[in-house]
Design brief:
By secondary structure, the protein is an all-alpha fold. It is built from 4 helices and no strands. The longest helix is centred in the last third of the chain and has 35 residues, at 89-123. The N and C termini lie far apart (78 Å).
Amino acid sequence: MAGGKTIVHCIAGVSRSVSLCAAYLMSELKSEKALILKSKMGANEAVQYIWKRRNCANPNPSFRSQLKTFETQLKKSSNSFDSGDCLTELESKTIESMKTIIQLLMLISLSFALTYIFIFISHFK
């Protein structure tokens, strides 16, 4: 059911259902914290994502431990090649442009630094 809605519930909606939803988010959503490479959400980020929307969300220590184990398993499985994790052409071009800009900024900074050093040394001659 692409785009459909699902209700997940348990007795209190605090631990069990939150853990299930966090595991789903970890396997399906990209991390909001990743800037360039689109890695999956980690256990803590997934629980925080839910907590922002339902502030009573608080998986018990056992469920948190299981989510951490699941996170490790997801990272291991994502190390194999998956074309969905490849960068698009636009993303690749953007990264290359950013690298070029950074290199230019470093050259400009170096140029200013060398000029400053030359002026400083000339001052003491």
